[in-house]
């Protein structure tokens, strides 16, 4: 099987002595949609920062598409992995939206013609073409988040990584983000997010990684979020759809649905098959 990310026994300690990762071992399938869940301090962001070389392994190893992350190939890794920070203001800093999205391709030495093509494509992908000449600080938070994503897409990474992408977004912006991530994955990109949002992770992802105190507590399909011992151990909540079905006395289903539409379809089917009373 082809893996986008292979991590073995990764450990990391910050300069102040805080241990962030404690022997993390995990793999991410190429072309997958992976959600990393856990409370603040679980090590999610530190783990993501290892995926494009912001942090280098102090112990263990990280491989991206078979290439080991180290000081010699940081630039190559950053072409393969695009990282979108939690706060767009840490990433969006140029005088105009166009300049900001062009920064990455220009930094990698691409010719002007190619940069223009990539900026246009990236802004179209996030629905921000009409804002190309705007100053980023005049945009809403959700719009700045989309500009940050466009800046990463313009580099054309094979792996897209987002740290807490839903933070401080309104419902419409969350919907826009969902559509962007779906589109990028359908076009062949591996997408990895770190999030607190169990409902989004359960509906969107096909692979779940649950972290606690710098360790991987569990990894697998979305059924991981249906397991009480994992939810309790990580201090998370069941997804709303799972909670709903768990609370219906006597109801047995082989697999909890992932979306509201799937839940409604299942309930309607169960009601239809119930014996009718005279």
From TrEMBL:
It comes from the Bacteria. CDD domains: ABC_cobalt_CbiO_domain1 (cd03225). It is found in: Cell membrane. Its main location: membrane. PROSITE patterns: ABC_TRANSPORTER_1 (PS00211), ABC_TRANSPORTER_2 (PS50893). One of its GO terms (cellular component) is ATP-binding cassette (ABC) transporter complex. SUPFAM superfamilies: P-loop containing nucleoside triphosphate hydrolases. One of its GO terms (biological process) is cobalt ion transport. GO terms for molecular function: ATP binding; ATP hydrolysis activity; ATPase-coupled transmembrane transporter activity. It is a peripheral membrane protein. InterPro entries: AAA+_ATPase, ABC_transporter-like_ATP-bd, ABC_transporter-like_CS, ABC_transpr_CbiO/EcfA_su, Co_trans_ATP-bd, ECF_ABC_transporter_ATP-bd, P-loop_NTPase. The keyword Membrane applies. Pfam families: ABC_tran. Keywords: ATP-binding, Cell membrane, Hydrolase, Membrane, Nucleotide-binding, Translocase, Transport. Residues 5-238 form the ABC transporter domain. Belongs to the ABC transporter superfamily. Probably part of an ABC transporter complex. Responsible for energy coupling to the transport system. Part of an ABC transporter complex. Responsible for energy coupling to the transport system. This is ABC transporter ATP-binding protein. It comes from Fervidicola ferrireducens.
């Amino acid at each position: 099987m082809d893996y986008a990310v292979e991590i073995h026994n990764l450990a990391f300690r910050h300069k102040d002595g805080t241990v962030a990762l404690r022997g993390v071992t995990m793999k991410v399938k190429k072309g997958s949609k992976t959600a990393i869940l856990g409370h603040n301090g679980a090590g999610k962001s530190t783990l993501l920062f290892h995926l494009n070389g912001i942090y280098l392994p102090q112990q263990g190893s990280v491989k991206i598409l078979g290439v080991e992350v180290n000081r010699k190939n940081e630039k190559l890794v950053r072409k393969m992995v695009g990282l979108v920070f939690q706060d767009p203001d840490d990433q969006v800093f140029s005088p105009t939206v166009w300049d900001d999205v062009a920064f990455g391709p220009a930094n990698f030495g691409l010719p002007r013609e190619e940069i223009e093509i990539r900026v246009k494509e990236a802004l179209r992908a996030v629905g921000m073409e009409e804002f190309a000449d705007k100053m980023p600080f005049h945009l809403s938070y959700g719009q700045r988040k989309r500009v940050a994503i466009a800046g990463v897409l313009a580099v054309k990474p094979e792996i897209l990584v987002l740290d807490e992408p839903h933070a401080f977004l309104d419902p419409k912006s969350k919907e826009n983000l969902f559509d962007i991530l779906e589109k990028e994955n359908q076009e062949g990109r591996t997408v990895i997010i770190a999030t607190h949002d169990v409902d989004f992770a359960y509906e969107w992802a096909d692979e779940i990684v649950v972290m606690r105190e710098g360790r991987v507590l569990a990894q697998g399909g979305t059924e991981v979020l249906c397991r009480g011992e994992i939810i309790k151990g990580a201090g998370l909540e069941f997804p709303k759809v799972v909670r709903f079905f768990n609370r219906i006395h006597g109801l047995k289903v082989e697999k909890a649905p992932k979306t509201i539409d799937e839940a409604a379809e299942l309930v309607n089917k169960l009601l239809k098959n119930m014996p009718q009373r005279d």
